[in-house]
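As the next step, I needed to go through one protein, both as residues and as discrete backbone shape codes, included below for the reader:
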Amino acid sequence: MSMVEQVDALVVGAGVVGLAVARALALRGREVMVLERAADIGTETSSRNSEVVHAGIYYPPGSLKAQLCVQGKQALYAYCAERGVAHRRCGKLIVANTASQLAALPSIIERARANGVDDLQLLGREEARALEPDLECLGAVLSPSTGIVDSHGLMLSLQGELEHAGGMVVCHAEVARAQVVEGGLEVHTLDGTALRARTFVNAAGLGACDVAACIQGLAAEHVPKAWFAKGSYFTLSGRPPFSHLIYPAPEPDRHLAGLGVHLTLDLGGQAKFGPDVQWVDAADDLEVDPARGDGFYAEVRRYWPGLPDGSLQPGYAGMRPKINGPHEPAADFLIQGVEVHRVPGLVNLFGIESPGLTSSLAIADRVVALS
């Protein structure tokens, strides 16, 4: 029989959300250990995304995604500025190239305002081209508070503050099973370590549904089905002529399919296009099919006719940890505490896809309130 080690709070998953949660708990004087199954922090969803700081424009008003994105954006910019984490508030243009897209631009501004984002500006074609001369559009919306962040630098900063406050991250530590016990949860890792925690936060991202399913004493009805939506990115060879992020305006009938092929920039000024949406069966299906790039050219040339032939290379793919299937409306974040599942000390985080990076500090505050 292995010895059971006591720890006040266990967090599963050392992505940006798990690290933000662990840091927030540690700063409140809690003893915190993070269990990460991979060899390093942030190797899954947190390092395979657009690194965009989202404004909070598209999410349904009143949803957790809307609330936590807007709160998280403000907290994230302040955090990065105070700690020297690389970021840039470069702004984003949402561009219309069809009559239906153009007609929908005012409703985008209205929805954003309902979410507390009141700095969007409606631009005519010439105003948009004055900002980005290589852009082709009928009109656009400018989102000045959208930006980009060095996600790995952010995670290293969160880890550093967690450790400074006495917390620790343990890699190569995968949860095998857990059970509800008196005063918390008992957790067993694959290597045989046994831990008993008063608070257990499941921030396992792509593995969150699997982790929840292995908790004896948690009713199965509280564990959603995991779905995986892969997003492939293609990188641009050469320097892009843009200084803003460029997003196509959503087509009114394309609400299930993501936001079109958008152009994002990294902090070095390089451009990438994507992500697209490809529903797959496995979380580790991360190969980029070069043939998918063929469809990117036509999409991008709607707003950048000057995209050179042969200039897109397969970049990388990310995986969205979804809890809705391909023909269902996008699910909200699911932050599940004792009031839902009746297990004291357990907080499950499901479906933390975009805008999870932007929302991470606000999600952490919400979890602390439940812990």
